[in-house]
Automatic annotation (TrEMBL):
Domain Calcineurin-like phosphoesterase per the UniProt entry, residue ranges: 1-208
Organism: Aliidiomarina sanyensis
Alphabetical list of HAMAP family matching this protein: LpxH
Family: Belongs to the LpxH family.
Cell inner membrane among keywords: yes
Family annotation (Pfam families): Metallophos (PF00149)
Pathway info: Glycolipid biosynthesis; lipid IV(A) biosynthesis; lipid IV(A) from (3R)-3-hydroxytetradecanoyl-[acyl-carrier-protein] and UDP-N-acetyl-alpha-D-glucosamine: step 4/6
Protein name listed in UniProt: UDP-2,3-diacylglucosamine hydrolase
Cellular compartments per GO CC: cytoplasm; extrinsic component of plasma membrane
Cofactor requirement: Mn(2+)
EC number: 3.6.1.54
Binding site for substrate: 79-80, 122, 160, 166, 204
Amino-acid positions noted as binding Mn(2+) 2 in the UniProt annotation, renumbered to this chain: 41, 79, 114, 204
Length: 248
């Protein structure tokens, strides 16, 4: 049995190729897993559990079918879908986890997270994150009308790294941008020490790789822009791989 990890799918109705691979993954490959962990940015953006679009209903239906098959599915918020809430969890059977979370993964103490908190060189984003993720502000934001939340989400998306000013679709970051917004060694080492773990799994930086640090191994999941990125973990070790998107 394997435990599978994915992140940074950025699902949207505009990318049926990504959606197709994810649905196929849930219906087939993932059904043989011991558990599935989604480490943030499952959606391109999520403005609230009450945003009942046909696309969102489709994804929730697929997740519900998956969890009803008996396989646990866990979710950690990303920087694009931090408004996913308890209603989503109740409707899908997906369990929401705090960030970071520590799990025992085949005898290896492992810390899992989305990964944006590790990018401490991006000081402007870290300041923004502290404000936008404050519990008081989150509770107020959920009361905003859907139309207003949609406008805010569009503004934030179109002004985030890697997007042109008038882009309607998120684009992959350039190598220079990826380096600028990467995890810093200091933040990684601090998290290892704070959690007492020897393995770390995260996404967000879109630079899939396995890194050796003084305090442990850090596994970075890839994004799903041009391929699907999947991490398989079992008692014998880890495999980080990619799968082709499903074209129409």
């Amino acid at each position: 049995m394997t435990t599978k990890f994915i992140s940074d799918l950025h699902l949207s109705a505009d990318r049926p190729d990504i959606t197709g691979l994810f649905v196929d993954f849930l219906r087939h490959e993932a059904r043989s897993a011991e558990a599935l962990y989604i480490l943030g940015d499952l959606f391109e953006y999520w403005i609230g559990d009450d945003d009942e679009t046909p696309f969102h209903r489709h994804i929730k239906s697929e997740l519900k079918s998956f969890t009803q098959s008996g396989i646990p599915c866990y979710f950690i918020h990303g920087n694009r879908d931090f408004l996913v809430g308890q209603r989503f969890s109740d409707e899908t059977g997906v369990e929401l986890l705090p960030e970071p979370s520590v799990i025992e993964l085949y005898g290896v103490p492992t810390v899992i997270l989305h990964g944006d908190t590790l990018c401490t060189d991006d000081t402007s984003y870290q300041r923004f994150r502290k404000i936008i993720r404050h519990p008081w502000l989150l509770s107020i934001a959920r009361t905003f009308p859907l139309a207003l939340r949609r406008k805010i989400a569009t503004f934030l998306r179109d002004n985030s790294s890697g997007n042109s000013e008038n882009s309607q679709e998120t684009k992959p970051l350039t190598e220079a941008e990826l380096a600028k917004y990467d995890a810093t060694p200091h933040a990684v080492d601090a998290l290892f020490q704070d959690t007492g773990t020897v393995q770390m799994i995260h996404g967000h930086t879109h630079r899939p790789n396995i890194h050796e640090h003084p305090h442990g191994i850090r596994i970075v999941l890839g994004d799903w822009y041009d391929q699907g990125s999947i991490l398989d973990v079992d008692a014998s070790g880890t495999t980080l791989r990619s799968e082709p998107l499903i074209k129409d």
